[in-house]
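Ticket 4471: requesting a sanity check on a complex prediction with NAP. Repro inputs:
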Amino acid sequence: MKLGFIGLGKMGDAILSGIITKKVFSPEDIYYYDPVKEVSGIHRMKDEGSLYEAVDIVILAIKPQVFPEVISLLQASKHRPILVSIAGGIDLSYLEKHFPHQKIVRVMPNLAATIGQSVSVYAKNSHVTSRDESIITSIFSSIGTLHLIKEEWMDGVLALNGSFPAYLYRFIEGMVKRAVADGFPEAFAKQLILETTLGSALFAMQDERSFTELIRDICSPKGITLEGIKVLEEANIDFLQAKVYDATKTRSMEIRREIK
Ligand SMILES: NC(=O)c1ccc[n+]([C@@H]2O[C@H](COP(=O)([O-])OP(=O)(O)OC[C@H]3O[C@@H](n4cnc5c(N)ncnc54)[C@H](OP(=O)(O)O)[C@@H]3O)[C@@H](O)[C@H]2O)c1
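Returned C-alpha cells:
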C-alpha cells in the first residue's frame, strides 16, 4: 500500500515523522508533492496530479484556502485513493461533492503532533471500510491518540483539542506573569506550572470523580485554594468559558462557509 502527502508543511511533516518512526509505512512506499519542501528518502512527485495517481491513500496537508485549486487538479482522475483531509473548515460534504463515491476521512490533529502527542479526532464517510479505518488509525496513532467523532462535532471539537492549547497557555501565561511580579524567576514559575499541569491531567485521567469533586477535594473549608476559586466564580468563569467555546465553534463554521 502506498501513501502520499500533498503538502509537507508543519503538520504533514509531523505525520511523516510519526509514521516513519513508528514504521507504519516504509519510506519506499511514501510519496509527496510540495512546491518547495525537499525531503530525502521518500519519493518526490512532480505535481499534485502525479502524486494522486501513484498512491492508495492521499493525505491533503495543505491550507484550506488552497483546496479549491488542488481539487480542480485531481477531480477529473479515474483513480480513487482514500482521501484524508486534515484541513480545518473542509467538511466531508464539500469533499464528497467533488469526489463522489470516494472514501473520505476528515482528521483534526493538534499542535502536539510535532512531538507525537496529538489528540486527533476523525470522521469518515459511508464508503470507508473497517479495514480502511484501521489503516487510518495506525497512521494517526503514530502522532498521538485518535478518536472517532460525529462530523457535526468537528467545529465544537476545536475548543477541546485544536484551539484548547492556546486557551490553556493563556491561563498559564497570566499566572506566570503574576508570579514573576511577586518575585519568582520566570523560568522557574513556568516549569512549576507546566509540571503541575501535566500531573493534574494525569491525575484526573486516573480518577473517576467529577471535576466538581476533584476541586472540592483540593479546597478545604476556609482554606487557601477556595479563595482562588471564589475569584474565578465571581468573575463568572463558566460564562466566559462558554463564550470562548462558542467563539471557537462559530469561527470554524464561518471559515467553512467562506471556502464553499
Ligand atoms: N498546524 C497545526 O497545528 C494544524 C492543526 C490541525 C490541522 N491543521 C491543518 O493542516 C493543514 C496544513 O497546515 P500546516 O500548519 O502544516 O501548514 P503549512 O506549514 O503552511 O503547510 C502547508 C504546506 O503545503 C504546501 N503547499 C501549498 N500549496 C500546495 C499545493 N498546491 N500542493 C502541494 N503542497 C502545497 C505549502 O507550501 P508553501 O509554504 O510554499 O505554500 C506548505 O509546505 C491545514 O489545512 C491546517 O488547517 C494544522
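Notes from triage: Residues 119 and 161 are 6 Å apart (CA to CA). Leaving this open until the requester confirms.
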